[in-house]
């Protein structure tokens, strides 16, 4: 990848990151949501948080083979090699092949998540929907990771993906701090200190706080359709940030290769 192409992609990345941080300044909860949440029993908050923790644990311990059956990991690995060869031989500039693959995976999974959430919402199913929702989330991030040549089966990579999800769901100063931490992690300036279980707990807390009201009303038949559609919105936000993070990580890798550091 030549300097001109690298500079072009880097400028795009900076613009995307600024947009991500700007979007995080807006409070995702409207006035009605904030008022209603005051009356949601604490026991419901605890149950929702526990459901997210168990959902992640289930997907990581037993759900991986099931998730992988929904796409061809081998095909992603082969496509990555083709895109890498194409980029290196200058038949196509930049990261177009990698980005198209990641974008395609995102669009497909966002639609799946929306359909799944709407279906459970119409039926009035709230908490039982969470393992399925998490399965789609992890499928989305995994496919984006594969698009840029990163495997996800190590504990280190699972922690990285959870931190990515947590950052995507954060807001305000917390989003700025977590995004900065992600950047340091990618550059090797900072090491992740949390264990997998600790990262699961931290990520579950952020997700449950963000989705408390929406998952609460999702348990009400028909009315729950509104809550169910939150799966669509959240998956869209997380997939957008995942594409940004893995592109940044891949660009960093290309730069290090160019400088002969790896």
Overview of the structural elements:
- It is a single chain.
- The protein is mainly alpha-helical.
- It has one domain (3-256).
- The protein has 11 helices and no strands.
- It has helices spanning 3-23, 31-37, 42-68, 73-88, 96-123, 130-147, 155-169, 172-187, 196-218, 224-228, 230-258.
- The chain is globular.
Topology:
Blueprint: H1 3-23, H2 31-37, H3 42-68, H4 73-88, H5 96-123, H6 130-147, H7 155-169, H8 172-187, H9 196-218, H10 224-228, H11 230-258
Helix pairs in contact: 1-11, 3-6, 3-9, 4-5, 5-6, 5-11, 6-11, 7-8, 7-9, 7-11, 8-11
**Secondary-structure element order, as H and E?**
HHHHHHHHHHH
Q: With helices defined by DSSP (H or I, 4 residues minimum), what is the helix count?
A: 11
Low-pLDDT residue intervals, each spanning 5 or more residues? 120-126, 220-225
Kindly report the average pLDDT value: 80
| Ends distance | 15 Å
Based on secondary structure, the structural category is mainly alpha
Q: Classify the beta-strand content into a percent band.
A: under 5%
Give the overall shape, derived from the CA principal axes: globular
């Amino acid at each position: 990848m030549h300097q001109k192409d690298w500079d072009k992609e880097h400028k795009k990345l900076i613009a995307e990151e600024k947009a991500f941080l700007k979007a995080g300044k807006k409070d995702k909860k409207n006035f009605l949501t904030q008022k209603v949440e005051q009356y949601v029993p604490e026991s419901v908050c605890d149950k929702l948080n526990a459901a997210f923790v168990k959902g992640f644990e289930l997907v990581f311990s037993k759900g991986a083979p099931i998730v992988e059956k929904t796409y061809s990991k081998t095909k992603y690995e082969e496509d990555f090699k083709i895109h890498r060869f194409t980029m290196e031989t200058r038949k196509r500039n930049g990261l177009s092949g990698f980005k198209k693959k990641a974008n395609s995976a995102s669009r497909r999974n966002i639609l799946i998540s929306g359909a799944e959430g709407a279906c459970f919402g119409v039926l009035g199913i709230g908490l039982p929907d969470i393992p399925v929702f998490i399965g789609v989330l992890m499928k989305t991030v995994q496919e984006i990771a594969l698009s840029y040549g990163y495997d996800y089966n190590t504990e280190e990579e699972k922690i990285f993906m959870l931190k990515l999800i947590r950052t995507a769901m954060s807001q305000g100063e917390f989003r700025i701090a977590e995004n900065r931490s992600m950047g340091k992690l990618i550059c090797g300036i900072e090491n992740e200190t949390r264990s997998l279980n600790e990262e699961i707990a931290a990520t579950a807390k952020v997700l449950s706080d963000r989705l408390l009201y929406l998952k609460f009303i999702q348990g009400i038949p028909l009315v729950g359709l509104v809550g169910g559609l939150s799966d669509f919105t959240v998956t869209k936000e997380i997939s957008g940030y995942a594409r940004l993070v893995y592109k940044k990580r891949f660009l960093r890798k290309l730069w290090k290769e160019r400088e002969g550091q790896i």
